Amino acid sequence: MFITHRLANTRLADRIIVLDRGRVSEMATYDELIDQAGDFFEVLKLQEDRD
Length: 51
Prior knowledge:
Elements: E1 16-20, E2 23-28, H1 30-36, H2 39-50
């Protein structure tokens, strides 16, 4: 288990759990979260745009 704010680092994880205000908002693989285009996807895109 690891905790990161750099979402690109999560690509290697078997399962990703996204928390929003202390509650699980999304839980899936990296590819599934990208396909869902939810909170994880939106924050990932914001981070990529800053790099």
